Amino acid sequence: MNFRSNISALNEDIIVDQLLLSHDPDGRWLDSEMLLQEVETILSFVLQNDVSLPITAPLDFQVSTTNIEVSESKEKETLPYAISRISVQMLCPCMGENEIQTRTMVLFDLLKEYRWDAKAVLVLGALASTYGGLLLPIHLAFSDPVAASIATLNQLPIKRTNFGPWLNSLSLVVKAMVDITKCIVEFERLPFKQVKLDNKFVGETMSNIYLASYLVVKSALACLQQIPYFKKIQQAMESRRAAGELSSLGYQLRNIHTHLNKQVDECSTKIGNFQML
């Protein structure tokens, strides 16, 4: 898979080297799949345009994700604390592409102890927490006067028609990021130690997993940089430009997901065939 058209300024090999230098897993355990389900539930609800849809019951994931455990260590990091410290970094303003790239690597340094799937899922958790808190009062404003007051207090645009294009573009990006992260989660769960596959094929797929993780983190960071445009949605020109940037990013990520999904499926099939021998 060629990521070069989607990663500007930096070469793929340089990025992979930087990512591997920042990767130092210490055995921390996180049920990435279950947390990703919860993240997807939150974002799907707050990003929908139909405000008449009811809130579904939350998933029962408290036992699995309340604590992020470090194996063979007394240290523990709670999920809220992990997401909070990630959010602090992601909400720092970035001026231009170079600063976004730099901040992306800062996040990978912050997440160095985690597996690749956990890195991506935790960043999406920070995204869901931020946009959930931002958009939920707007979503509930027409049926809940308290939510309407919160939205007004924070000077948020209550009429969704005012920011529909921006919201649709953001939904496109989020859906693509979640789908890519599902591929990363699936790949991390494959039992490579139990089988022998072509080293070149596995190595290429692993490199693409690293780059996909990078793009998910970078894209999530870019999405949070859009918040000022959302709060100034009355400025039509800026709003359209922001929506256009998100749409372009969303289509790029969808293309990446298509290729990555094929590679991960091929790995899974090869492993399945080997185990049947």
Q: What do you see in this structure?
A:
- The chain is mainly alpha-helical and 277 residues long.
- It has one domain.
- 67% of the residues lie in helices and 3% in strands.
- The protein is built from eleven helices and three strands; from the N terminus they run H-E-H-H-E-E-H-H-H-H-H-H-H-H.
- The protein has a three-stranded antiparallel β-sheet.
- Helix 2 packs antiparallel against helix 8 (164-188), helix 6 (116-140) crosses helix 7 (145-153) and helix 8 packs parallel to helix 11.
- Mean pLDDT is 82; it is low at 59-64.
Which descriptor suits the 3D outline?
elongated
Number of helices: 11
Structural class of the helix and strand makeup?
mainly alpha
Distance N to C terminus:
29 Å
Give the helix level as a range of percent: 55-70%
Number of self-contained structural domains: 1
Q: Nearest-angstrom radius of gyration? A: 19 Å
Strand count: 3
Q: Characterize the largest beta sheet: strand count, sense, and whether it forms a barrel.
A: 3 strands, antiparallel
Low-confidence stretches are: 59-64
Domain Sieve element occlusion N-terminal: 11-273
Organism: Arabis alpina (Alpine rock-cress)
InterPro entries: SEO_N, SEOA
Protein name: Sieve element occlusion N-terminal domain-containing protein
